[in-house]
Design brief:
The complex is a heterodimer of chains A (about 300) and B (about 300). Chain A is mainly alpha-helical and about 300 residues long. Chain A contains twelve helices and no strands. In chain A, helix 6 crosses helix 7 and helix 9 runs antiparallel to helix 12. Chain A is globular and about 70 Å long. Chain B is mostly helical and about 300 residues long. Chain B is about 80% helix and about 0% strand. A two-stranded antiparallel sheet of chain B has the order 1-2. In chain B, strand 1 and strand 2 form a beta hairpin. In chain B, helix 5 packs across helix 7. Classes of the chains: A mainly alpha (about 300), B mainly alpha (about 300). At the A-B interface, helix 1, helix 2, helix 4, helix 5 and helix 6 of A face helix 1, helix 2, helix 4, helix 5 and helix 6 of B.
Amino acid sequence: MTPGPPTNSILMSTGNLARRRLAGRCFSFLVAGCAYCTIAILAVLIIQILGKGFPLLTWDFISSFPSRKAEDAGIKAALWGTFWLMSLTMAIATPVGIAAAIYLEEFARKGKLSTFIEVNISNLAGVPSIIYGILGLALFVRAFQLDRSLIAGALTMALLILPVVIISAREAIRSVPSSLREASFGLGATRWQTTWNVVLPSAFPGIMTGLILSTSRAIGETAPLIMIGALTYIAFTPRGPMDAYTAMPIQVYDWASRPQPEFQVNAAAGIVVLMAILLMLNGVAIWLRHRSSKKAH
Amino acid sequence: MAELNTARIREHLRRQGGDGPMGKLIIGFLVASAFLSVFTTFGIIVVLVRESIPFFSTIPLDEFLFGTKWFPLAAQPSFGVLPLVAGTAHIVIGSAFIGLPLGLGSAIYLSEYASPRMRSILKPFLELLAGIPTVVYGFFALTFVTPLLRNVFPSIQVFNSLSAAIVVGIMILPTVASLCEDALRAVPRQLRDGGYALGATKYEVTSSIVVPGALSGIMASFILAISRAIGETMAVTLAAGGTANLSFNMLDGVQTMTAFIVSVSLGDTPRGTIGYQTIFAVALLLFVITLGLNLLSNRILKRYRESYE
């Protein structure tokens, strides 16, 4: 591949300047249209779903268990299930993900092995989530006999989001200036002391942002949970990691896939609650990033 | 190789005064965490291959890959996967027509035309669009896109691949936009300035210098987006339906590979039967296709990184 694109096509531009400028203006409108399209799509999506789910958005909906009657059915079990599932998932994925990122950035010798792990992680990030569901089914549900428990779901979800956690934590660690590390080494600190006392505190906001965005990705994941059998009728809130559970996206899928039109309202209301949580998480992540970028200047 | 690295680190720690047994424990945890990803890949391959061996020992590989009838749960079962592949192709082709041009267009706007202020407004919107759960897109397709399409195509089915493809296109748009923008921004400024010095307009610089210069990055993002569309599950399960037919009409319902896996795992097919084993065979095919595309995308991306740095 030759470096640099061919430039001779410009030299052959013909036609008068007015026509060339008109073409340019049309093009700029076209690409701006593409970009604004995304806002329009988002607006339509939110307005549609809010409009459909609005009549059901009451405290009763949030504090009721699922029911065969659409107007009585609520998302209490799913809301608590999601809360438990995400807490356990992040409790597993956070230490492991940050540790892997630290190893790859601070300890591993750059060579064939670290390249292999890197390529492996980026490929794992592209594996369809349903495949993780199959892995979870064979490994956690059957081989470890964890059945349909919260912990089986959390372990599956942790494997699913680990690549994202590792990649974002590595970026945060890499952005810590090496002068800080050198100063710490100069004071006689070991590599681990440097990592723990200097690198991690400085990379903390970046790591947090990545963790929050990973959580918001995991909250909406439905397919792997369906594979490991989380779609069941649950009319209680989990009390511990071995309990059965249901989660919000699964509850939404269950309602949306029913033929009765009344349940579409429940699905829409469930989506509104789910999106409200996602928006909150994204808001915190954006705020954290904004704050740390301000500090850097 | 792992042994080698821990030995080196241990030696390094000893030379620096060491951290004692605690230090060793910590390093051990770091190394184990990094290797977990290798075990995950290994686990996926072992599970998929081991569970599909009984299937492929009954059904020949060529019958699976090239058969045109997919009735795995019928009394007279037939195991030709082509209808599922065709269903997936509907989604991929349809979503590519929407997601790729819109994503590239947005990326060109963000990287070449938008003011920093506009960029800072638009980027969070794209991230938000990327963060919407796929089950939400499925619901949107079912309750908004399909009724809207019915005004144009009165013969459209309740479950159809067109509306599913449209929402999957919207879903891959942010991926394409953000990766293409990175590629466009990596084109050195001097090349743009060279174009202006030759008297080119902004459009001419963009279309004949910047976009060709970022072409490998753009191609890599397209391939990655297609791989996402192939693996997409919930939106197509909700909107495209569950009938595996080898159809070319996007107004009909189709079943994708992913939707089939979901439908079997939701159903009451007993474990150990050949009907149940099909999900592992289909998942293996899905894994091989997406892995191939991801590797291809990485390879292209690596080449383009090398050309400018």
